[in-house]
Amino acid sequence: MHGALIRHERVRLSFRLMDHIEVQGSKLANGLLNIDLLRVVPVEAKPKHIVIGGTESADSKPVSEQ
What is the pTM of this model? Predict the structure, then answer.
């Protein structure tokens, strides 16, 4: 009798991702949904290296690369 009370319906869930987030893949295993996300930062949003006071030395690097 309990089998008659259980309804098998499709569930649909959607959500919005922030800017610059891409879905790389997803999998459903053991009732858990795993979603692989990748944050892609455009060149315009990356930190910039600015040389102050003259020439740039050969071993100077942007702060993000140190």
Answer: 0.49
